[in-house]
Design a protein that fits this description.
OB fold (Dihydrolipoamide Acetyltransferase, E2P); 7 strands; single chain; two-stranded antiparallel ribbon; 131 residues
Length: 131
């Protein structure tokens, strides 16, 4: 069994996953989720870690409601109890400015999440675009 197959099978078993494509040459797994799924990025990271791999930066599109708590922007993820802290993307800091203008609205945020050493700690979403 190849490493790519092991990762593919593990990711495909996650409830809410529609399709999986794994490229070990690129060090990349692409996962498309079904509408209404409730899986979180840290769940995928933990699964990869259990398979012996170190999760890396993850590009995501997440639907939810923009809110502010204690002066910090966050995204309350639709269909879950998950809340993602939002931070500017160092490569595109201007995209973050639209967050404050859209507080209280339902949006899709595209960005990057990078795991820390402790996969249980809340990871901020670096905002690249708000739709």
């Amino acid at each position: 069994m190849t490493c790519a197959h092991v990762v593919y099978v593990a990711l495909k078993k996650v409830p809410g996953v529609e399709s999986v494509d794994v490229s070990l040459n690129k060090g990349l797994a692409t996962v498309k989720l079904k509408p209404g799924n409730t899986v979180s990025v840290p769940q995928f990271w933990q699964l990869l870690h259990q398979q012996g791999y170190t999760p890396k930066a993850t590009v995501v599109s997440v639907r939810g409601d923009l809110a502010e708590a204690q002066g910090h922007a966050q995204l309350n993820v639709t269909g879950t109890r998950d809340t993602l802290p939002l931070v500017p993307d160092p490569k595109n800091p201007g995209a973050f400015s639209s967050v404050s203008r859209k507080l209280g609205q339902s949006v899709v945020v595209q960005g990057v999440m990078t795991p820390g050493k402790d996969l249980r700690v809340a990871t901020p979403l670096q905002v690249q675009e708000v739709k």
